[in-house]
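REVIEWER CHECKLIST
Item 1: Sequence provided? yes
Item 2: Single chain? yes
Item 3: Sequence as submitted:
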Amino acid sequence: MSYGLSIFDTNASNVFTVTDQTWLQIDYFFVGAGQSVTKSFTGLPSGITLQTAVIFVNTPPINSQFRTPTISISGTTVTVTGIQTSASSTVSGTYTVQSGGAYILVLAK
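Item 4: Structure as written out by the authors:
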C-alpha cells in the first residue's frame, strides 16, 4: 500500500501527483521604472531552472507608453531592468516610455 496525493481531471486522467515537480517561489523583489536589479542565487543545487513572473503594482500616467521590464536569466542570476526613457512621434509629440513599478517573483524547479 502506498500513500500520497493524486489529482484527477474530469476524464479521470491523473494531472498531478506528489512526485511531480512544481515551480516553487524562492524570492521576490521590487523594480521601479528606470531601476536595474541583479540577484544571484548561488546556494541553489546544480541543474536547477529559474523562471520569473511579473506583478505590476502601478501603471504609468496616461501620457506614457507602457513596457514590460527587461528580464534576463543566466544560470542562477536574474537581472531585471526597468525602462524609463522618452520618445517622440509626429502625432503625439514627446512622450515617456516606462515600465512602471513591478514585483518580480523568482521561481525554481
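Item 5: Key structural point noted by reviewer: The CA atoms of residues 59 and 67 lie 10 Å apart.
Item 6: Recommendation: ____
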